[in-house]
């Protein structure tokens, strides 16, 4: 099968590496996002997919806009069977969809139609889901609305974070993409339409999503801590400064106090959340400082009973 691979982040790497080991597939080019400044030093670095492609000796294309006429011309000239697209980072315009014989085949990290959008892993965890998975689909002009091909379920661990779940789904998704392409070539994988009435959205994360609402239950806050790791994280205000927090719900205990109320112990710090539930704080990172344990935070700030997290 003659393929082009479109992808950018680490999530797409296992699929590209896996396809490169299969003699039945010939990857003629890799499309990835242009090199961008990253990190505190704003050094220009390659995407994870570009690193793999260069190591494998595959031509790398990095158009600012995939809708550019020269891109369309290049793709038509490749006589493609399929284009694999995984977290590429650009919407594919309708005129490009008919180019590959079998279509543009996408790996999406949710059980579509649930969690259409840019951050399905993060929102599934943040919303307290216990089951997720991967879906392969043939994309159309909509946002993750194309016909479904294969799906594979996996449970979400009770303490699993977004990076941990993403790593698992990336690995299992590679085999799912392999199977999808092989069955499409054989002609024994008919697509099926999505049920739009069951759709939910997973929009790109914003910094504001990480602000803790202490009126939520401790379990809900913990879910959002796990889901929004590493960015935007979960943060609140304390004495006029922003603090990023990590913690865990306290099972079987409640307190009668306003949400956000701090309950300091000798070496422990608990916060009252919605419905009187309690969150045990494990670490704190104040503005401009390193991350420290709850005990270090207590000793350094001398938290008083009745103080609050959050704006009052």
CATH class of the largest domain: Alpha Beta
Oligomer: single chain
Summed up, the helix count is 7
Characterize the biggest β-sheet: 7 strands, mixed
Shape-level CATH architecture of the largest domain: 3-Layer(aba) Sandwich
Portion of residues in beta strands equals 25-35%
- Average predicted confidence as pLDDT: 96
- What is the domain total for the residues? 2
Fraction of residues in helices? 10-25%
Strand segment tally: 15
- Along the chain, the helix and strand elements come as EHEEEHEHEEHEEHHEEEEEEH
According to CATH, the homologous superfamily of the largest domain is Formyl transferase, N-terminal domain
Uncertain stretches of 5 or more adjacent residues: none
CATH fold label of the largest domain: Rossmann fold
Q: Shape, please? A: elongated
Trace the largest sheet across and list its strands.
5-2-1-6-7-8-9
Describe the secondary-structure layout.
Layout lengths: L1 E6 L5 H8 L5 E6 L4 E3 L4 E3 L2 H9 L3 E2 L7 H8 L5 E5 L17 E5 L11 H7 L4 E8 L8 E9 L6 H25 L31 H10 L7 E4 L2 E14 L7 E3 L4 E4 L4 E10 L5 E2 H8 L11
Parallel strand pairs: 1-2, 1-6, 2-5, 6-7
Antiparallel strand pairs: 3-4, 7-8, 8-9, 10-11, 11-14, 12-13, 13-14, 14-15
Question: How is this structure best described in words?
Answer:
With 312 residues, the protein is of the alpha/beta class. The chain has 2 domains: 2-198, Rossmann fold, CATH 3.40.50.170; 207-301, Formyl transferase, C-terminal domain (Methionyl-tRNA Fmet Formyltransferase, Chain A, domain 2, Roll). 24% of the residues lie in helices and 27% in strands. The chain contains 7 helices and 15 strands. It has a 7-stranded mixed beta sheet. Strands 10, 11, 12, 13, 14 and 15 form a 6-stranded antiparallel beta sheet that branches. Strands 3-4 form a two-stranded antiparallel ribbon. Strand 10 and strand 11 form a beta hairpin. Helix 4 (120-126) runs antiparallel to helix 6 (218-227). The termini are far apart.
């Amino acid at each position: 099968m003659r393929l082009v691979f479109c992808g950018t982040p680490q999530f797409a790497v296992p699929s590209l590496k896996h396809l490169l080991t299969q003699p039945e597939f010939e990857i003629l080019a890799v499309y990835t996002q242009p090199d961008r400044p990253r990190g505190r030093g704003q050094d220009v670095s390659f995407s994870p997919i570009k690193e793999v492609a260069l190591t494998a000796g595959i031509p790398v294309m990095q158009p600012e806009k995939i809708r550019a006429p020269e891109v369309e011309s290049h793709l038509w000239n490749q006589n493609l069977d399929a284009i694999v697209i995984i977290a590429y980072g650009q919407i594919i315009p309708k005129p490009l969809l008919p180019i590959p014989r079998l279509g543009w085949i996408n790996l999406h990290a949710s059980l579509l139609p649930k969690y259409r959008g840019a951050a399905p892993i993060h929102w599934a965890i943040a919303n307290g889901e216990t089951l997720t998975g991967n879906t392969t689909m043939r994309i159309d002009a909509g946002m993750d609305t194309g016909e479904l091909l294969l799906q594979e379920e996996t449970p979400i661990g009770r303490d699993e974070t977004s990076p941990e779940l993403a790593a698992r789904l990336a690995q299992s998704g590679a085999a799912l993409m392999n199977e999808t392409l092989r069955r499409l070539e054989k002609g024994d994988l008919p697509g099926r339409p999505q049920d739009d009435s069951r759709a939910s959205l997973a929009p790109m994360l914003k910094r504001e999503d990480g602000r803790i609402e202490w009126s939520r239950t401790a379990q809900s806050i913990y879910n959002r801590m796990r889901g929004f790791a590493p960015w935007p994280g979960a943060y609140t205000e304390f004495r006029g400064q922003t603090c990023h927090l990590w913690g865990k719900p306290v099972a079987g205990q409640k307190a009668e106090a306003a949400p956000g109320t701090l309950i300091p112990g000798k070496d422990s710090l608990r916060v009252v959340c919605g419905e009187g539930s309690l969150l045990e704080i494990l670490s704190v990172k104040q503005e401009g400082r390193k991350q420290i344990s709850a005990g270090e935070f207590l000793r350094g700030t001398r938290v008083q009973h009745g103080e609050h997290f959050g704006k009052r």
